[in-house]
Amino acid sequence: SLGRFTDLPTRRPLKAPLVKASRSSDAALRREALVALGRVQHRGADKMLHAEIEGMKAAGETVDLRLLYGLGAIQTLSSIPLLEDLLHTAGTDTQRMAAWALAQHRDQRGGRAVVKTLEARLPMAEHEVQCALVHSLGILADEQSNVALIDAYERAAPAERTTICPRLQVSMRPDGAMDDRVDLFMPQDTFAMKVIMSMAQMRATSPEMRARAEPWLASVIADEDATPAVRESARVLAEGIATGRDDANATPVDEALGI
């Protein structure tokens, strides 16, 4: 329950009892304390979270997604190697959660290096993980990722482009009840629309990126097999790139992508 008090003016009074509980020999109590420490963004819990996740991996258990949510919340660079490993080796939902958690490091010095990790994973990932990677690249909004996003769209079969990329619901309660949960990868939309939305977050501005993005967007606009929504979104994005539209007052990335 302590982990739910994230809107307090200071979270310091919450941390001492949670840190004590996180060192308990009672595995269930320890896990819940770590989940709570992640939610209140106690950066000092990173190594304990790593150890808990590594222990689950070693035991052949599915990693508790709440622990990965905690790593995304506290955003310490020491978490990146573990998250990168999970992105390549874990089950589908764990990979999706790892992609989201990696993207949360965008504001940390050196954290934006994860862009290349996410881009490199795109070609070989299964479709739902690709959806998560595309969304996460939109969060990071690195202009160079336009190339990876275009390539992902082109590699996708027509049926995959129109497949809805599902949200990921994570209950934060120990009993799994959904009255206290986080919803990630919102809004839900087709893979094609997710690509266009993420490209809109990073916008092609350099001559090199415009030379790649603008002709491709023109081809999408002209593609009669693409849905009207995709074609119109590509048109709006192409217009914005061509006119150098000022998006200073546009919807923030977090709000647009539902994070």
* Main beta-sheet strand count, sense and barrel state: 2 strands, antiparallel
In percent, how much strand structure appears in the residues? under 5%
Helix residue percentage:
55-70%
**Which H/E pattern describes the elements?**
HHHHHHHHHHEEEEHHHH
Based on CA inertia axes, which overall geometry fits? elongated
Report Rg.
20 Å
User: How far is the first residue's CA from the last residue's CA?
Assistant: 22 Å
Going by helix content, strand content and strand pairing, the class is mainly alpha
By DSSP, the count of extended strands is 4
Count helical runs.
14
Give the spatial strand order of the biggest sheet. Answer: 1-4
What are the segments in which pLDDT stays under 50 over at least 5 consecutive residues? none
Mean pLDDT: 91
